[in-house]
Known about the structure:
- The protein has 2 helices and 24 strands.
- The protein is elongated.
- Helices cover 7% and strands 42% of the residues.
- Strand 1 and strand 2 form a beta hairpin.
- By secondary structure, the chain is mainly beta.
Amino acid sequence: xxxxxxxxxxxxxxxxxxxxxxxxxxxxxxxxxxxxxxxxxxxxxxxxxxxxxxxxxxxxxxxxxxxxxxxxxxxxxxxxxxxxxxxxxxxxxxxxxxxxxxxxxxxxxxxxxxxxxxxxxxxxxxxxxxxxxxxxxxxxxxxxxxxxxxxxxxxxxxxxxxxxxxxxxxxxxxxxxxxxxxxxxxxxxxxxxxxxxxxxxxxxxxxxxxxxxxxxxxxxxxxxxxxxxxxxxxxxxxxxxxxxxxxxxxxxxxxxxxxxxxxxxxxxxxxxxxxxxxxxxxxxxxxxxxxxxxxxxxxxxxxxxxxxxxxxxxxxxxxxxxxxxxxxxxxxxxxxxxxxxxxxxxxxx
Length: 349
């Protein structure tokens, strides 16, 4: 028997013998999948391109693994869509919830498949691009491990939770760097605030072929709500921006100003900050005039520990009862008839 005859009589021979069975299978396979989407297996979903204020695309999809076997797997699903639909970092909304396309989609020439993670919380912040309040559903995992959730400071006990937070990569989220603060809590009366300590845009990227896709992973730790800058109603941290300096005093001979070298006009209990006196003459002068300093230290909430080369060192008392108080520093130039003041608020850890 010839080799060709042996191939003909193999048990794995095709049902059709035209030589194009493979192409026909995949051609009709995609049509068959579209038919399945119109059955009870499919469901209506909304697909958002990496932000929830974008216009969604309504489509039919099959969501698998909807009956979880363990607690941890309850946040994971698989979604099947027509080929060319999905991108890592998109939001999927169905049954009233937000889900994040977490993996790189793949296809078997019949349908496209990707993993999606449940977003259990939405965070709000001021966009670094537009300056407006924006909202992002995020995936958050508690990474505190075996900690107690508290850290003992010298004068107080503060929260010590640590989380891993995942959100889409786009031109807005990539600008949020270390020290970025946001509120993440269901308690609106005493909300918890978290601070980003590490930004990882690489581990969950989608590769050079899909550079605009992917996720960003944040490592965050719990910090304290700041009454001066955070907004409970909007649930936005650092909502009230503070200028670096106070209102300068302008006189006939020049201007006097006080500048907070930290830039936030906030002084944490037990810490120090430096404030610089700046004199700007309105014309040419051989020497700058003398100035005088005065202070309102809110009944001992802070003290001046030094003045050198025009820089004032201000230290806050180690007493949490002073949190919320405001101290004021003033500089006056009698020769110019000009005076400037700067308010510094005492805050907790």
